[in-house]
Structures are given as C-alpha cells and as structure tokens.
Write a structure and sequence with these properties.
heterodimer, A: 119 residues, mainly beta, seven-stranded mixed sheet, four-stranded antiparallel sheet, globular, B: 111 residues, six-stranded mixed sheet, five-stranded antiparallel sheet
Chain lengths: 119, 111
C-alpha cells in the first residue's frame, strides 16, 4: 500500500523556466493538499484540491502558480517563469473523503516533498 | 504575533528524558495536528486531535480547547526521536486543508 508519491524529489530550474511538480495521493484518497516550506521558514498552505476541483486556493500566489488534480493521473503544481524566491521544498499531502464527518478532522498523509532549486 | 506559537524553539535532551513540547494558538480550531519532520525533510503525521488526549507508543498528545493549548510528550526519549516537531491547526469553519503551522521545535536527543 504505497504512500503519497511525489516526483521529482529534486528539481533544478533556471530563472524563467517552468517547474512541474507531481503528486500521486495514497490509494483511495481523493483530496490533495500542497504546502510550501521556504528555507528556514515554516510550512505554508498553498492549495486544496479534489478530483477536477479546486476547493481552496487562498494560499497560492496570484501569478505564475497553478494546480490541478485531473480525473486520471497525479495532481500537478505548476510554476511558470520561476524566480529564485520560488526555491523551496514543496510538500503534497492526501486524505480520504474530506467532507464526510466533521469538516477539518481528516488526517493527512504527507509525501516526501520536491526540493526545487532555481539558479 | 503568529496564530500558532510553539515552545521551545530548540530543545536538547539526554536519552531517556521525558520531553514536553508546547503549542498555543489564538484562533478557533476544528482540529490540531502534530507532525514530525525528519532531518532528511520527510513529514509524518503523528496525531490529529480535537479534544482530550491521544497516545501512540511513547508519544502522548493532549489538548485543552478552553486554554487553546496543546502539548506533545515523549517518554523515554531516544536519539532516533531527534527531529523537528510541528504543530498545525485547522481553523474552525475553514477548509480542512488550510492548515496554519507553527515554526516547529527542533529536538535533539543525545545518547
């Protein structure tokens, strides 16, 4: 029973390039969350998605960042025209059915993270 | 002031010691999470709780909703417990994924 998978684990991009980060949730999980951890800082929420829906993107920068979770395949976090300030660890987490039961009480399982370095 | 505050920021202990890490928050929450981040960077969810107390092996987490405070205890600490421990909260009425994280407590257990 594989856990949350993220790839690549390390990604190096030059300024102006695009970065695509992939997250495959645990089997049976239909909710995906993306978090960013800047160097020497705490984790910050970015976006919460269900299959084919963005539920909460209040933590996403307004420009250059987008996320999707298609019906088939992994969730993708896309960063266009990367800048040095985008260098960070990006973590994905997943959980089972989210809104069943008490909202906010759904345990999340984290992936190993993708470490993005922008040169 | 951060909405989630942890103390201490850094903690060094000798193997076998009882350890307590504290988390205070200033918002209404629906759940509180304790996470462990290993030196390699991977994150493991230790506990999710909304009331009372939970225990898993040598780890115990408690929460006092009235006082807006939670503690994570480690009994009989071991060098393999060395990691960063992170407290996070889900805001009441907010989306469940929108966690607010503390800055973490870096624990080092010496043999």
């Amino acid at each position: 029973n594989a856990g949350v998978m993220q790839n690549p684990r390390h990604l190096v991009r030059r300024r102006g390039q695009e970065a695509r980060l992939r997250c495959s949730p645990m089997k049976g999980h239909s909710h995906v969350y993306w978090y960013r951890q800047l160097p020497e800082e705490g984790l910050k929420f970015m976006v919460y998605l269900q299959k084919e829906n963005i539920i909460d993107e209040s933590g996403m920068p307004k420009e250059r960042f987008s996320a999707e979770f298609p019906k088939e395949g992994p969730s993708i976090l896309r960063i266009q025209q990367v800048v040095r300030g985008d260098s960070a660890a990006y973590f994905c987490a997943s959980s089972p059915l989210g809104l069943a039961g008490v909202v906010g009480n759904n345990e999340q399982f984290f992936g190993p993270g993708t470490r993005l370095t922008v040169l | 002031k951060n909405e989630v505050e942890q103390s201490p920021q850094n903690l060094t202990a000798q193997e076998g010691e009882f350890i307590t890490i504290n988390c205070s928050y200033s918002v209404g929450i629906s759940a509180l999470h304790w996470l462990q981040q290993h030196p390699g960077g991977g994150i493991v969810s230790l506990f999710m709780l909304s009331s009372g107390k939970k225990k898993h092996g040598r780890l115990i987490a408690t929460i006092n909703i009235q006082e807006k405070h939670s503690s994570l205890h480690i009994t009989a600490s071991h060098p393999r417990d060395s990691a960063v421990y992170i407290c996070a909260v889900s805001i009441y009425g907010g989306s469940q994924g929108n966690l607010i994280f503390g800055k973490g407590t870096k624990l080092s257990v010496k043999p």
